[in-house]
Amino acid sequence: MRAPKTFRLHIGIFGRRNAGKSSILNALTQQDVSIVSEIAGTTTDPVEKPMELLPLGPVLFIDTAGIDDEGVLGEKRIQKTLQIFDRTDLGVIVSNFNDWGEFEHQLIEEFKNREIPFIVVFNKSDIHGENIDIESQLDSVKIRYALTSATKSTGISGLRQLLLKTAPADFINRPTILADLVGPGEAAVLVVPIDKEAPKGRLILPQVQSIRDLLDNDSFCTVVKERELREALSLFNKPPKLVVTDSQAFLKVAADTPAQIPMTSFSILFARFQGDLNEMVKGAMSIDKLKTGDKVLIAEACSHHPIGEDIGTVKIPRWLTQYVGGKLQIDSIRGHDFPKNISDYKLIIHCGACMWNRREMLSRIIKAKQAGVPLTNYGLTIAYSLGIFERALQPFPAALNIYKEVYKD
Amino acid sequence: MRAPKTFRLHIGIFGRRNAGKSSILNALTQQDVSIVSEIAGTTTDPVEKPMELLPLGPVLFIDTAGIDDEGVLGEKRIQKTLQIFDRTDLGVIVSNFNDWGEFEHQLIEEFKNREIPFIVVFNKSDIHGENIDIESQLDSVKIRYALTSATKSTGISGLRQLLLKTAPADFINRPTILADLVGPGEAAVLVVPIDKEAPKGRLILPQVQSIRDLLDNDSFCTVVKERELREALSLFNKPPKLVVTDSQAFLKVAADTPAQIPMTSFSILFARFQGDLNEMVKGAMSIDKLKTGDKVLIAEACSHHPIGEDIGTVKIPRWLTQYVGGKLQIDSIRGHDFPKNISDYKLIIHCGACMWNRREMLSRIIKAKQAGVPLTNYGLTIAYSLGIFERALQPFPAALNIYKEVYKD
């Protein structure tokens, strides 16, 4: 399912004809497994390129390559350029720094006047001379910039981080946790086991957020323990649209939910809501490649996390060991510090990061991707090791396809 | 419905034959509108008196009046007295102070050894001499005591506060918010309106606590906005045992809930859970006695309360004014400070106090009662002024009877 154009983050790419706009775009594109289709335009019309840009998701690049510059924004081209500014959510100025000048300053001025967030990309490989003064010049005016070498494909990961950092929060944060899977006037069933770790008199945040997400979108839900699920389902004269369970009750809930009712877990919902479900599905599937002695990093977002304490430190290590059939080298981290060097790990398993904003989780996904380390989360790991991955992914066709592509026989 | 003996707080009253045990009991009894029935015993057996003691609720007084003392716990009576200690949750030593001595110290020693909370009551009117040294003597050993004059009925309110303060938390805190009205394996519907005051992505505490209370007791619930209630109810092939709404949606929910389904509000549940529903029902009914110019105190538990801000300061004052048909003098307070002098007020209207422990709310109920000022809460005020008091009280027969007694025609 392609995202409608209206939901895509519109990234306007500006710069002189020889600045390297196309090579930057190509470098981003070649790294992503995604379909890039060009929408034809006349030579002076900007080219629009819809794509799935990791980690931002669906974006629309507006490539102003067709617009000539000749140093300054002349009267004739002002109208056309203004139209692009009108629909730009995030601006990118590409420069080779050698002819950085009046034209670039006019672009910056325009972004500032319109309060459009923007970044500058210097294509290092095109820069002549060594001791250029980029850093001091742009740092002093607090302009965010990235240094890339499109031809050598270096700096692209830093550019992704900068795009992530600068993109408006509305585009980073997903609009819904699960209400899009349920629909107005329809019901979900949320299965909330109460074990001795559950804080007295409360529900944990992902559960509360899910209930609220449904109410905000004119849906409703039945909240029930796993033991009473069968009884609760028998009360419906029309099946609920979705059953969501805490991962810890996965097997019982899978058994008690009729096959025609879609079923998933809070963790899988949060992989999508707070991270990138497709990337994390790939991550979970890499469990199969783990071998005795491999290094695995388990990352908990909260530095003090009374709930689920033993999921990350006890249960998941135990399951993984059983699954792999040998001892793994498991490191645990907590909080906002992420190791600089992660390339030794064969897998990173993250908590749902329900207390973080999505930007932080996506930033880790880029870092893992750059280091070539698959990343997944607790719930996906549990679902995979319990053998109910396929059923739990059914509400998410794109993610399910990633799985089916590998196990298509 | 009488509380079973097992759920009553067992208060053992100890003291010498002439210490005033009976007059203390009578003073407490005469102030409470409650049935006191004596369970007959032999002269040397303790008399058990079940009663509704404001504000503790159902208690069982074990009156040791039949046990002779003669100064010390002689061998012959030790066995009988130990039996009483065995079932005492809260001990009361009554003394006239003149013969305070070895006997009382033995009682105190026994309470301490058994870790039974206890208080001492000095019946002032029986104390001979003015400059007695009670305070310094008992303060030094940190023993809680009350000074009463049972014959003049003074100090009884202070005694109640001391009993409240000393009673074990298990007896102060009610075991359930609403699960007792629903039952295991059965469903409630919780109606949660989402207005602009609702904090983003969250539910307010009483809603979360209610969901959790149901799960803890093997019940379950459907959570729905008032707009989708009708749709949600139509989805079930068996009516829920109870519909609970936020007071703000009372009229719509009353209209959309079939008459045979019991319906109440979170506020009414919390009047019972955090306060004393019967007292607060009386308080709400006193709205009818308000006249133009009367003073009303509106009390909010939280000192900073972003939600419901305008309920206490705007909506309730407006409703009351409309109901009374004239201007009232309305004072507002917030937080833990309660005015010393409240006897000028004709009514106190409290928030649900969901962030407090019940002890604090009960303490205010005693203070209001002592000052002769009726006390109610927001939700009961709203229900009363909207004319749906009777329906909202149906799940609570004792409270409903208080209302029907007055409006029996």
Strand order of the largest sheet of chain A: 2-3-1-4-5-6
N-to-C SSE string of chain A, H for helix and E for strand: EHEEHEHEHEHHEHEHEHEHHEHEEHEHHH
Greatest interface = A-B, 32 and 31 residues
Main sheet record of chain A? 6 strands, mixed
Oligomer: homodimer
List how many beta strands of chain A DSSP finds.
14
**Contiguous runs where pLDDT drops below 50 for at least 5 residues of chain A:** 33-43
- How many helices of chain A does DSSP assign? 16
Could you say how many structural domains of chain A there are in total?
3
Tell me which CATH architecture of the largest domain in chain A applies here: 3-Layer(aba) Sandwich
What layout of secondary structure does this protein have?
The structure is a homodimer of 409-residue chains.
Chain A: E1 9-15, H1 21-31, E2 47-53, E3 57-63, H2 75-86, E4 90-95, H3 102-114, E5 118-123, H4 134-140, E6 145-148, H5 156-166, H6 169-172, E7 187-191, H7 205-216, E8 220-224, H8 229-234, E9 242-245, H9 250-256, E10 263-265, H10 266-274, H11 277-285, E11 295-300, H12 309-324, E12 329-334, E13 347-350, H13 358-371, E14 375-377, H14 378-386, H15 389-393, H16 397-406
Parallel strand pairs in A: 1-3, 1-4, 4-5, 5-6, 7-8, 7-9, 9-10, 11-12, 11-13, 13-14
Antiparallel strand pairs in A: 2-3
